[in-house]
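F.,

This is the one I mentioned.
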């Protein structure tokens, strides 16, 4: 990154400020997020490459202005204040490409995670309810957590949920329009979600 004295004005938006995880945790920093997709470089890059499959006139205008909301709450997971943590609750609705009809669609994203912010080689025991977030550098920018969590929340293959919005399904999918509209993929994801909840 570019050095220089930019910590002075960074607190205008704590998402972009850089501090150590322990410093964020020590002040129990809570960041209410009201941001835009375009401010999250990783997420923007993934969406841009997805939308690149569309004809230029089909790309939704203003997709970078889509709202990202939620909150990050920093603290310590342990009484000794050795293990900085952050509880993350994030939501956004992004523009992606339906993998069936290759038209743009609006995809809601939600990410919830309780992260331990640890140095690369730390291995805490007894904190199974947390995911370990390995810090690659000493200063942590909360925005990077938001960015990465939303990228991880993206579906592997976005697709219209309702067949009515999906050209691929309305053209030839009529004959089997029964009661059960669950795709095998959705059923599998529900199963995986249930398995994950049961493992705690």
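My design for it:
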């Amino acid at each position: 990154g570019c050095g220089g004295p930019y910590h002075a004005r960074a607190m205008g938006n704590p998402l972009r400020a850089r501090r150590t995880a322990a410093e964020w945790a020590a002040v129990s920093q809570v960041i209410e997020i009201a941001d835009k997709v375009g401010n999250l470089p990783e997420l923007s890059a993934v969406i841009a490459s997805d939308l690149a499959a569309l004809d230029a006139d089909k790309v939704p205008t203003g997709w970078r202005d889509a709202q990202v909301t939620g909150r990050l709450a920093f603290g310590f997971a342990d009484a000794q204040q050795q293990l900085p943590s952050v509880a993350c609750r994030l939501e956004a609705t992004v523009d992606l490409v339906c993998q069936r009809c290759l038209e743009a669609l609006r995809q809601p994203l939600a990410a919830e995670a309780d992260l331990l912010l640890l140095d690369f080689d730390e291995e805490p025991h007894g904190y199974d309810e947390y995911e370990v977030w390995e810090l690659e550098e000493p200063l942590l920018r909360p925005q990077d957590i938001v960015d990465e969590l939303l990228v991880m929340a993206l579906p592997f293959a976005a697709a219209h949920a309702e067949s009515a919005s999906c050209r691929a399904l309305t053209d030839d999918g009529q004959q089997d329009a029964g009661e059960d509209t669950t795709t095998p993929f959705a059923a599998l994801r529900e199963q995986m979600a249930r398995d994950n909840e049961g493992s705690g």
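Residues 3-10, 173-181 have pLDDT under 50 and may be disordered.

Talk soon.
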